[in-house]
Amino acid sequence: MEHKHLLTYEEEILSFTAYKNEVWYHISPPNEINIKIKIHNGYDGTFEREIVEVFPINSAAGDEKNILSDFLFNFLCNAPFYGNPYLVESDWFTYDEFAQLKDKSNEIIRKRKEEIRQQGKDNPLIQYCESKGLNPEPEGEPNSWQANCPSGGKHHIMISTSSDQWGCGYCRKKGGLKELRAFVEGDETVVAEGLQTKRSKGKKLKDFIDRIFKRNKE
Ligand SMILES: [Zn+2]
Question: CA–CA separation, 189 vs 151, rounded Å?
Answer without folding.
Answer: 14
